[in-house]
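ok so heres the complex, two chains, lmk if somethin looks off
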Amino acid sequence: MSAQWPAIRMTVNGESRTVQAPAMKRLLDVLREDLHLTGAKEGCGEGECGSCSVRMNGELVNSCLVPVLQAAGATIQTVEGLARNGVLHPLQEAFLQCGGAQCGICTPGMLMAAAQLIERNPHPSMAQIREGLAGNLCRCTGFMRIFASVIAATTQQPESAGEGASDAR
Amino acid sequence: MSTTATTRIVGATVPRKEGVDKLVGRAVYVDDVAREGMWHGATVRSTIPRGIIRSIAFDPRIDWSAFTVVTAADVPGKNRIQLVVADQPCLAEGQVNHCDEPILLLAHPDKHKLLDAVGAVKIEYDLLPAVLSIEESEKQNPIILGEDNIIKSFLLEKGDADAAWAAAAHIVEGEYRTGAQEHLYIENNGMIAEWSVENGITVWGSLQCPYYVHKTLRSVFDLPDEKVRVIQTETGGAFGGKEDYPSTLASHAGLLAMKSGHVVKMVYDRMEDLAATTKRHPSRVRHRTALDKEGRLLAMEIDLATDGGAYSTLSATVLSRATLHSCGPYVCPNIRVHARAWATNTVPYGAFRGFGAPQAIFAIERHMDEIAASLGIDPIELRRSNFLHDGDRNATDQLMREPVILDQLLDRALAESGYYVRRERYAHENATSAVKRGMGIAAFYHGSGFTGSGELYLNSLAGVDVPADHKARVLVSNTEFGQGTNTILTQIAAEALGVEFSDVIMAPADTAHIPNSGPTVASRTSMVVGRLIERASLQLLAMLRQDAGLGERASRDAFFAACDRYRAAHGKVESLCRYEAPPGIHWDDKTYHGEAYGAYAWAIYAAQVAVDTVTYSAEVEEFWTVQEVGRVLHPVLAKGQIEGGVAQGIGYALYEKVVWQNGHMANNQMTNYIMPTAEDVPPIHVIFEEIPFRYGGYGAKGIGELPHDGPAPAILNAIRDATGVAFNAIPLLPEDLFERLGARQPVEEPALP
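and the predicted structre for the whole thing:
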């Protein structure tokens, strides 16, 4: 059976990987089942929640909507590829400091969306942050700590919590 | 008491305990687990709201020999999921009482074969008349549950609610409604089960309350305690939605595992999770209020009804909390609250953050604004003149022994929001603008922990131990699902033990290793369980001082050295404590009088809302929260709790509508059940006034549920302020605004500046 499936080569988190999978298998399932990269999550299966977000050839995609054949030859980055040599990416560090992750299920997708955003625009305005993250649903945080995390990552000032920052005393 | 002492770790912004695992994609959620030879399970569900199952046929185009099929006949123990009353079948027997009720289970090695197979099971029914709303249930024809369709009723009385009306200067009436709301945790419900004769049943899954699941499995599988094991996997949001439902799903996965002989995974997709699992109870609350000529409350008569769905589940306890929060944070000498939870043929409603309080608080806080409008007085001053203060008694005659600082919270909220300045400005601007802005507030309290005698009944046991690897461990059954349990409980233990935050970890949430410290619900973790961990840690220090030569003010190295000596002598280093009620807690379940809660968190929330009279959209533009939740254990996590709760509350008020079609949720997708996104949530300001509570963990009271209580009434009060129209039902969608405003106000172009 599997002999009939095409061999699909991709570069995933900097490594060349080849999978044999049905052409229409979702990239999300290939990442999770074939490559055992379970960071990307399925929240809705229809491209609404963004928790399966990964970067493909420099674009943010919902991996639940991408047939793996479409990823042939592509460069894929998942949340597992954000930290380098055990050092957290500035976004991961900021999410940790500013409370950007609560239950954590949207976090891998949110981080990829945020990474995409700040790579395109290293100093986004609040409106640009909101727009950049609008495809990723978080039910825990109300987004305020996530905005604060993105701002902290782009300014390297963890306590510049920005909009939504308040004054606990 | 340690509550006023300077602390090193409590109150500090330490990193979330499991934070790095979540940020690098290493945290293991149930769907991330794959076991060798694992099968997958699926559920065949009712497609009608009520009827007798006439026949079940299996389409011969499917090779059924490759499937495991489970029906109610395969249940070895009691075919019931019991939370309060044993009325809900684990799998339907003979009759179905709601759409999407589980009837039959299938398992197969290939999950992709299951969808077809579910569709190939043909069930025929003899339809029975269904009851689909509170009003239909009240007619008591047909009777669908018990003798009268009433799942539970409460009567709360204080003073003489009949005598006060004659003396009243004003009588104001109103009716307020709230809709169902979905938890919409981003991780759907999921469970993996393994069964063997020797070990009984083990489940791994996304859940809040390991011992609730444990209790259900014991009963469904008729097994002794030691043959049931429940292990929580990382849980991707819960909000109450994984309080009761995991008991059902664990039973289903377990039945398939037992019959198939394989490990079985069941993870719902979004459509199944939305259609088949619990939601927030819809409500209808009628207020009739007597006031004197100064606007002081003389009497409140409240008729509170909730839709409980087809089975009892947690409706009685949700109704209890609704009843106890229905009179608001006000002094009123004469009260009668008659509350009833009605059975309907819909998916059973269940726990959801706030647990009945958001419904009741929506009604009273909306009603206060209608009273103010009716009397022609300022809604702020109406509230202020009726606030509870320390020394007053609330609706259940509970004496407010602890400080009550509502006036201070209100002043702060007014100042922070610039309430009066903005109101005046918008009143002026609205006259010439198609966008009408307004300000609204809500005042409320939320009882922390289980109601009345509930905490004594739970009899929680929790503690700390220090295994030989030199990490102290927190031993609790309270789970992490984003709210910060792991972090705050290890902070408390590290603080009390005098070690570093990194020296303390959580013991695995596995019933084979942890005591029953009660469910992770009811805003009880910080206050009740946190206090147990604080006590157990101090008790451990005393043990080490007495038996292992630990000195006062010892270093962390000296602490672990003493642990080694103690372990060598006694075999293990462990300290457990059982719940003890704060003094003066008396509760009478019959009369509904006494100390309803050990403590209350207090808050004033304010909303600025813009209503566009061209598009009929209502948008929250800014939101302020001022609250007193005792000691804040972790400033960033605490802010996160408030902001997240407010966002859910905004969704509850303006976005989230469950559309019903003959008892089935018709919009069971994220495409058409709409929650607020990053572009919708306004700036949310979070302000804490801290008054440490003596009997809570390092002074903490409950925080988790509070923020869901205030947004909906504050927002609808702001819409009233903006438009002059009283909207008394949520969710309030553009079509609802259009219905009332469209007829009244001709569409006009925005005036040019």
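quick notes: The radius of gyration of chain B is 27 Å. thats all i got rn
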